[in-house]
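ok here's the first one, seq then struct tokens
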Amino acid sequence: MSSIKIIASSLFLAATLLTGCSQTPTKPAAASLYDRLGGKDAITAVVDELAANVGADSRINQRFAKANMKQFKANMVDLLCQGSGGPCKYKGDDMVTVHTGMKIKDDEFGAMAENVVKTLTKFNVPAKEQGEVMAMLGGMKGDIVNR
């Protein structure tokens, strides 16, 4: 083999090795909250349990006495699914429209939040994911309380 071919082959090999070594390994994309919660079936199970917990909570169950619980649960599933990065689309009214005239108090909002945490804990949802769910729902407080 001629010395030019050897040098060219060596340079090509060196460039290939250096390029491969200089590339930053790709980090796998982080799973969405939706995926970490277990998807729509898991969210549906959580919402079903949440509705039962709310129904048993005398601090807030009167707020749901005349509610269409089937519709409430479907909307809540879609809200959590969409808000956590899932494929669902929330089709209900915005939170201001839904809660205007209800005059929900801070302590009632807090009771609902406690029920969410209780439910997530029952399903062994890790603290990080619980925090993300609570931040999502807590961000709606201004649209819900004292309307």
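and now the second one, same deal
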Amino acid sequence: MEDLQDIYNELIMEHSMNSYNKKKLESADYSEKGHNPNCGDEITLELKLKGDIIEDMAFTGHGCAISQASTSIMIDTLKGKTIKQAKEIITIFIQMIKRETKDENELKKLEDAIAFKNVSNMPARVKCALLAWHTLEDMLNKKQTQAKGDINECH
């Protein structure tokens, strides 16, 4: 019987080698670049919203297998979620990678992204796994700030 880690490794390799999420997104609402100077990983995340729901996401760029797979799996995990749900899942993922949570109920919300759980044992790979998640978090925070700015703007 295959152990869970083998299944996770297969999932990571599959997403890093042939990610259907790696493409330009037509009519994206938001775009954000993410860069990891330590290893040269560079991605551009594109996001399309429908109201408060993440309707579609895609990415372009290059990097190591972990950064590419993490980005692709993040997109699969968050597509169809509300911004609030996405932010909660991003927080849980970051806490898992930084070993700040082991709560099984919380970790279930990560779906396939739980495959990166053991990256926390590889300090050199942590930034690779987190690149897309931090990039999306920045994008969503900027979007919120812009939305608040629009409301407070005097005309």
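notes on #2: Strands lie at 30-36, 41-50, 53-62. The two ends are 66 Å apart (CA to CA).
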